[in-house]
Amino acid sequence: MPETNPDFRYPLRWRIMDMAEAIADFLWPRRLSKYTGWLFIMPALMLVGILVLGLIQIADASLRTLDTATYLPSDNWSLDNFQKALGSSVYFKVAWRSLLGAALTTAITLCFAFPYAYAMVRTQSPKVRKALLIALFLPFFIGQVVRAYGWLILLGNGGMVNDVLGLVGIGPVRLLFNYPAVIFGLVQYMLPFAVLMLAPALTAIPTETEIAAGSLGANWLQTLWHVILPMAKPGLVGAGLVVGTLSLTDFAVPAMLGGGSQDFVANAIYDQFFRTADQGLGAALALLLVAVGSLIVGLVFMVFGAGTLSMGARK
Amino acid sequence: MANSHIRLSRRAMLCGSATAGAALLITGASTRRLMAQNAPEKPREIIVRAWGGSWVEALKAGVSDPFTEATGIAVRHDLTEDNEIQPKLWAAVAQGRIPPIHVNWDTTTNATKSALRGVTEDLSDVSNLANTTDLAKPVGLEGYPIINTYGYVYVLAYRPEAFPDGPPTSWTALLDPKFKGRIALYNDGIGFHFPAQVAGGGSLEDIPDNMQAAWDFIAKVKEQDPLLGEDPDFTNWFQNGEIDIACTISTNAREARKNGLEIAWVVPEEGCKFDTDGLWIPKGLPENELYWAKEYVNFALTQQAQQVWLDGLGLPGVVPGLTPPEDLVDDPSYPTKPEDFAHLIRISAQVQVQNESEWFSKFKEIMQG
To answer: pTM of the predicted model, to two decimals?
Structure first.
């Protein structure tokens, strides 16, 4: 049996670790270790719980109508706000504009994001990869409102783009305050999200697969169509879902680049909450937006699967 | 460079005027009240909600800074939009919380909604009310849940170079095809509904029961692809050359002109909407803070404060004896005499409050189509 040095003292680090372990054991005894996973997920569950509580309150508000004599919500519940929202042609137009906008933004963004992400993943040059990453992240760090304001300056009648057009005798052309301007702003805003969602999916496709396709006689277009796109489908679906839902619920870009006449549903909700003080109607519109958005996401899940959002789970 | 020079000069002028106002105040009766020994404990600051840009600058120069000099209480300006602070105040009062601001500078229509909801303190005991004109009294409400502090006009503002044959005389100028895409209105149509009723061949007496004439006229304006925005947008759009003609509050047009832009405005033959803004205090403040918030409102009604504040805004106040700014003498957007109001349209706040949501919705329906 080895002799113990009477002068031996545990290092400070060991003692701190022992103390930390004792505290952890006191706070979360070992017998509860099978629930440790739940402990870690608890903050997220609480956050979701708060959101659900908020939704319940919104649902309650949506069933109360505004009395314009007192500006108080009614005591009784009714479906008047939903009838008003569903029966109004203006909300139908705004909803259609939002859905179409989300679809167009998703399609265009994926078209731009795919080659960008592919180049970023496949390039052999670290410098090019870094340059692409910086170009992607720089606007990502700038807030949506600031970016939209930047477009107001660049695309305005007296902006840089019209100055350039003026050099060749064109213009000034009204580039802002219309539907295409809103879609343009949304695509520019969503591009980094889509690239970041696509890059891991493309990284997971082995380069050898593409080489094999080429060696079997496929040209680049055939390789893209029959090999890369099918294998990148999870990334495309995940990116499409993120871009589509964010676009559908966007507020700032339609408000700033739409010139007031290209409202999305979020703008209509804002108007009811903050302009006409009709919180009941605003709440009804908000719930309808949540319902439509969830329905679309559910349909995509059913048809295409959850893509990268499934976190590797089987369909 | 020229613009910044003008801006600096104006600021210097406003600061000078504020100091002069404060000096006058120190010798005045109001100060004796503000310095009273039996006044409740002073809060460190009071928070006043205000509109940004030239609006808050004018309030600061005319009211807030002199008030701070007289009382030692700092005034913080909260620039949350009036429509956005409203639900926060309503929620605070409903939940028995201390409201996030002490004084709300608000449109009379919005303030009336808050008064109807019962979230406003009664201001009948504000002493300087005795020196105000009838304009200060909110119509259709008991007591003084709000005190109107000035009036303003939604004028037809235009770029003179777009009108080489002389200024427009009618709101129908908005329908001129050469201005397609170069006109602007507020995004809820505020200020435009009533003149549109007249321009569309309707009658003001038919408001609110039959406004079809207004909606027909607004539908024609829609064909002109108008830009729709808020106060700061108008100044920006004029400055960036996006628009030639707009329905906006004269203060915004005047601000653009002060920034060196060629802008003019008229009251067309159909008339312009005249409305008021006011100050009110939300319920739920501690006693001492309520006292000093009322003192702030009281101070805003002194002649000195009104003169400087409203010189900055270019708007007529509610205290007799104010001198119009030099550039607004005999201007139709600065009504002072009864005959000046002949071409201005004034609809009671009560009618507006009860129908505004519907008007906004109808306007949106047309413009979003």
So the answer is: 0.84
